[in-house]
Amino acid sequence: MRWSDLLAAVALYLVLEGVLPFLNPQAMKRVLATMATFPDRQLRLWGLASMLAGALLLYFVRG
User: Fold this and answer.
1) Is 51 helix (H, G, I), strand (E, B) or coil?
2) Which of 24-40 are b and which e, b meaning 16 or more Cβ less than 10 Å from the residue's Cβ?
3) CA distance 17 to 20
4) d(CA 19, CA 55)
């Protein structure tokens, strides 16, 4: 892996992360307010599921 690949991934992450607040800031506020009420365990499970899905996708794309 080259550093340029890592930086491209980070750049793409930032672009995707900014889409919802740019297109619909009110929806983003609702999502964040809802997530703030989730128990820590549920947030950790969502985080784990997200990491596993990302790792699996990366494995198939780069594999």
Assistant:
1) helix
2) eeeeeeeeeeeeeeeee
3) 7
4) 22
Q: How far apart are CA 40 and CA 31, in angstroms?
A: 16
Q: What is the pLDDT of residues 6-60, one digit of tens each?
A: 899 999 999 999 999 999 999 999 999 999 999 999 999 999 999 999 999 989 9
Enter the pTM of the model: 0.72
Position 11, amino acid: A
- In sign, the C-alpha dihedral spanning 43, 46, 47, 48 is positive
Domain ranges of the chain: 3-62
